Amino acid sequence: MGEINCDILVIGGGNAALCAAISAKENGADVVMLESSPKAWRGGNSQHTRNLRSMHYGPTDVLTDTYSEDEFFEDIYKVTKGQTNEEFARYVIKNTPEVVKWAKSHGVRFQGSFGGTLQLGRTNAFFLGGGKSLVNSYYKEAKKMGIKVLYEHEALSLDIQKEYIGVKVKDHANAQILNFKADACVIASGGFESNLDKLQEAWGKPAKNFLIRGTKFNQGKMLFALKDAGAKIIGDPTQGHMVAIDARAPKYDGGIASRVDCVSLGIVVNKEAKRFYDEGEDFWPKRYAIWGRLVASQEDQIGYSITDHKVLKRYMPPLFEPVVANSLDELADKMGLDAAALRKTVDEYNAGVVEGKFDHTVLDDCHTEGLEVNKTHWAQKIDTPPFYCYPLRPGVTFTYLGVKVTKEAAVVMENGEVCKNLFAAGEIMAGNILSQGYCAGFGMSIGSVFGRIAGREAAKSREQK
């Protein structure tokens, strides 16, 4: 059993961990990173991302118009139904413009402002080449700066001491256990969304039907190690970023392409062919994250997004082709639904449509009236064959159960003591801000802001000894 001493140990290999490692190195510390995956799968969930949400007062080279601090916060307040820490949320929001500049200074490239059906060009800065490119850029920078990255090194347990942080690590490549002793440590190893046993503990039997949008390596080992070591754990284990994705997606790593974006343009029914929620509640980037939980609450955790030919070109096509049929009866047969029940649902929906000026770029006046579940915007009759259907499953992105931290990213213990040499960033502490709901790109904002802070403060903690 070997022992390795280091200045700063960063546990994790995604965006937050990379930001922490680079930040710590910038502030004069030697840094070792532990990535539990093989090199080919490095980057955690960050490799599947596309953008980060950023405030700005006026157009930039990557963002259009204006997106103020207050509007940004209102979006977070709305999706969390007011269950957010305003001080922490605004702290992240205010730091997002600087994060974009900092990312550029370390090799990350952004594409020009994004247009199209997602309506995110004003609020979100998109990475040129996506999350994989961002991750690769940061790893290239880390190598240039002399940061040591150890792949297939899985952190297992923590020993939190005032003078050092001890971490037991499994080196999978060499089948050995190593003991790291760090002056300070940053934990940025994600949530527990890939740990199927822990998901089932929280959700019960429905978890068996969940798909994991991201990496299979986010097992939550460090989250539960923090708990065992006496850190204060906050949040609800059933809360997280869960979206409706194509039921045909793989169990792990389906990524952003498995998301189904046409929900607001049609209707969604359950296995009884009944609608169960307002598909037109708000713009898709603000409301897409509620649909995973909605589908999870249905029998067998299955849903069906149904549209007709009128809207075929109005949404971003997902990974899989839709199931296509020339009649509703044919569609029902292909999807294993009761044909009479589906016809009844569609007929009632069509009868309730109040036609207006359809415009998916605004909260238009196309709605339904008189239905048990009304659709408030973008309601059009489903009457133009062929008809299209995407089967839906809950797709877990990341969980909100996490460790409590200060605004300096320092881990807080159950007894209220603040660790001077242990910090956390990214998914593992996102629950300090997000208790439920999600806004596109905000996870990357949290990880980037707190990653930089955690790395800086870890480096500073050494100087103060």
From TrEMBL:
Q: Which UniProt keywords apply?
A: FAD, Flavoprotein, Oxidoreductase
Q: Which GO terms describe its molecular function?
A: oxidoreductase activity
Ligase among keywords: no
The FAD-dependent oxidoreductase 2 FAD-binding domain extends over: 7-431
Q: Which co-factors does it depend on?
A: FAD
Matching SUPFAM superfamilies: FAD/NAD(P)-binding domain (SSF51905), Succinate dehydrogenase/fumarate reductase flavoprotein, catalytic domain (SSF56425)
Q: Which PANTHER family match?
A: FAD-DEPENDENT OXIDOREDUCTASE 2 FAD BINDING DOMAIN-CONTAINING PROTEIN (PTHR43400:SF7), FUMARATE REDUCTASE (PTHR43400)
- The name under which this protein is listed is Putative tricarballylate dehydrogenase TcuA
What species does this protein belong to? Campylobacter iguaniorum
